[in-house]
C-alpha cells in the first residue's frame, strides 16, 4: 500500500473480515492512509479496537448516538428491552426496524398486504422512525442533529433485468 502511493482505501468489508482488515492495516503501520467504509457499524468498530481505527471514516444513516429525539428514544427503548449486555444498536438493526415500520404503515393505509395496494397507498405517507421523520412529503433532508432526515415512502413495481428481479 505504501509503495502504491494510494491516498485512501474504500473498504467494503463487513463483520470479522472488516475487523481483521482493520487490525492488519494498523499492524502494518498504514494508519496514515485514510479508509472510508459505508458499511462500518458500532460492533465492528468495538471489535477492531481504538488502535486499529485511526484514519477510518464511516458513513451511515444511523448510529446509536444519533443526536435526535427519535434516535435517543429508540436507543432507550432498545436498552430497556434487551439490557446493557445486548449488542450495540447499529445501522443494520435500525434499518430492519425502519423497514418494518414502513411496512406496517403501508399495510395500515392500504388495508391489504399486497404490493399493488401498498404501492397505491404510498404517495403522501409520512411516518416517524428512529432516524426521525420520514415519508413522501417532498422535503429535502434535514441537517444532522435537527429534526430527522426525510425519506420517501416509495414502493415501486419490480422490473425484469436479465435473470434478476430488481426494483427501480
In short:
The protein is 36% helix and 15% strand.
The percentage helix is 25-40%
Rounded mean pLDDT is 76
Give me the number of helical elements.
5
- Measure the end-to-end span: 37 Å
Low-confidence stretches: 137-168
Percent of sequence in beta strands: 15-25%
Shape: elongated
The run of helices and strands is EHEHEHHHEEEE
Which structural category do the helix and sheet elements fall into? alpha/beta
Biggest pleated-sheet summary: 3 strands, parallel
Query: What number of structural domains do the residues give?
Result: 2
In total, how many beta strands?
7
Strand order of the largest sheet: 1-2-3
Gyration radius, to the nearest Å? Answer: 19 Å
Topology:
Blueprint: E1 8-10, H1 15-27, E2 34-37, H2 42-48, E3 56-58, H3 69-82, H4 91-110, H5 115-121, E4 126-129, E5 132-135, E6 158-161, E7 164-167
Parallel strand pairs: 1-2, 2-3
Antiparallel strand pairs: 4-5, 6-7
Helix pairs in contact: 1-2, 4-5
Question: Could you describe the 3D structure shown?
Answer:
This protein has two domains: 8-58; 95-167, no CATH class. The protein has helices spanning 15-27, 42-48, 69-82, 91-110, 115-121, and strands spanning 8-10, 34-37, 56-58, 126-129, 132-135, 158-161, 164-167. It has 168 residues and is of the alpha/beta class. The protein is elongated, with a radius of gyration of 19 Å. The strands form three sheets. A three-stranded parallel sheet has the order 1-2-3, with no helix packed on it. α1 (15-27) runs parallel beside α2 and α4 (91-110) crosses α5. The chain starts with 7 loop residues before the first strand and ends with a strand. Residues 137-168 have low confidence and may be disordered.
Amino acid at each position: 500500500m505504501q509503495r502504491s502511493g494510494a491516498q485512501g482505501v474504500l473498504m467494503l468489508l463487513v463483520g470479522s473480515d472488516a475487523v481483521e482488515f482493520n487490525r492488519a492495516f494498523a499492524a502494518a503501520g498504514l494508519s496514515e492512509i485514510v479508509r472510508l467504509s459505508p458499511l462500518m457499524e458500532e460492533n465492528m468498530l468495538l471489535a477492531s479496537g481504538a488502535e486499529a481505527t485511526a484514519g477510518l471514516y464511516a458513513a451511515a444513516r444511523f448510529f446509536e448516538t444519533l443526536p435526535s429525539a427519535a434516535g435517543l428514544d429508540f436507543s432507550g427503548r432498545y436498552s430497556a428491552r434487551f439490557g446493557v449486555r445486548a449488542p450495540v444498536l447499529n445501522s443494520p438493526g435500525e434499518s430492519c426496524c425502519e423497514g418494518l415500520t414502513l411496512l406496517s404503515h403501508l399495510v395500515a393505509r392500504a388495508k391489504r398486504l399486497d404490493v399493488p395496494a401498498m404501492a397505491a397507498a404510498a404517495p403522501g405517507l409520512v411516518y416517524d422512525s428512529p432516524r426521525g421523520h420520514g415519508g413522501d412529503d417532498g422535503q429535502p433532508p434535514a441537517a444532522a442533529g435537527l429534526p430527522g432526515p426525510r425519506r420517501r415512502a416509495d414502493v415501486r413495481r419490480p422490473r425484469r433485468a436479465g435473470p434478476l428481479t430488481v426494483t427501480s
